[in-house]
């Protein structure tokens, strides 16, 4: 079936190579049927290509197919996000396939995790979640931003830098005179 996205050239599954390499990429870390799938579809509709990461290939492949039906280019990457040391290689695989990563959505969740009432949370339970919910996201940000000109992409605009404050807004035309608040009568002691 041909993708329905009008940006795609007829007769080919994906756009011309040049255009294709240019379009932005979102990496969805923890791509399931819930939030992961919704984010993938939404960004895909905006012209993003989508990298889908989770452990079960079967479900990832199904999501890749669903996205393709809507004209969205996607690819599956199996990985266990509770292993932070494997993140650099995972991000390298995504970059090899798509050439870039512009947006990250990180939301792995499964039935193995249960929501613990705050009063029952203890150090052991918290420690269990540290690799996937703290260490791996740190590695993801590091791997994704490696090689990106962070000074250019995430710095303040030049005016901000020079003056340490935002540039002044352009002068406004004088509008109608402001109405003064009516004065309340002063309270007098009873
Ligand atoms: N869906 C909602 O309505 C909703 C509402 C509020 C908040 N949230 C939050 O949104 C986030 C996503 O939740 P969701 O249920 O919607 O998720 P989802 O996108 O349906 O799926 C998340 C996927 O993460 C994958 N995953 C779990 N552990 C993993 C691991 N160790 N390594 C790699 N992948 C792993 C699972 O696939 P595999 O098992 O194949 O790895 C799962 O399918 C969570 O943080 C959740 O708390 C969701």
Mean pLDDT value: 83
| CATH superfamily caption of the domain at 17-110 and 131-146 | NAD(P)-binding Rossmann-like Domain
Task: Give the names of the bound compounds.
Answer: NADP nicotinamide-adenine-dinucleotide phosphate
- Please tell me what the overall shape is: extended
Strand order, main sheet: write it out: 3-2-1-4
Distance between the termini: 84 Å
Radius of gyration: 25 Å
CATH topology of the domain at 17-110 and 131-146: Rossmann fold
CATH-level-2 architecture of the domain at 17-110 and 131-146: 3-Layer(aba) Sandwich
For the largest beta-sheet, the strand count, sense and barrel status come to: 4 strands, parallel
Share in β-strands: 5-15%
Helix coverage percent of residues? 25-40%
Q: Outline the low-pLDDT stretches.
A: 1-19
The number of distinct β-strands equals 4
Structure classification: alpha/beta
Helix and strand run? HEHEHEHEHHH
Total of helices: 7
Give the CATH level 1 class of the domain at 17-110 and 131-146. Alpha Beta
